[in-house]
Amino acid sequence: MKQSPADKQAFERMAPGIITAAGFLGFDERSPDRIIAEDERAFEELGLDFNTVADRLEELAHKGEAGLGEPITVGELLVQSGDARGMLPCPWEDGFFHKNAVSVSPADTPLEACVEGEDMLIYSELSIHMLRAHHFCQGRGSPFRLEPTLLKQLLF
């Protein structure tokens, strides 16, 4: 797969310390374009649609805001939405997004028992945008990784 100049620049901005302290790739050694390709395959195999998943994540974030920073039950999920001051740019330079963090986990599991990426999703407004616009779920080990199998398990 040939990388466009825009993708090359976006991938460079994903490194730790450029946009966020942790960056977007975690401990993943795959290239960002390979991460995207493999996650697109996983979405297809799981019967997931990027826009439908992004819509569901937005819906949960909005419902979680009713908790005013505290976890609330939304169906069979526990959702917690929190905001921080400021905005984050997309690595592809196609928008700025409010800093926030939304956690989603099974309602029957205490938050302290959840393991990030295994039975709890953590995502942001920027995560939703990158998922919808760029099919980018972030690298393994990234704090905001949207693991396709976990998306399927929790959301559908």
Overall 3D shape: globular
How many extended strands? 4
Instruction: Describe the strand arrangement of the main beta sheet, using strand numbers.
Output: 1-2-3-4
- The number of helical segments is 5
- Let me know the largest β-sheet: 4 strands, antiparallel
Number of domains: 1
End-to-end C-alpha gap = 31 Å
Sheet/helix structural class: alpha+beta
What is the averaged pLDDT score? 92
User: Spans of 5+ residues with little confidence (pLDDT < 50)?
Assistant: none
Compressed to H and E, one letter per element, the order equals HHHEEEEHH
- What portion of the residues fall into strands of 2 or more residues? 15-25%
Task: Give the radius of gyration.
Answer: 15 Å
Helix content: 25-40%
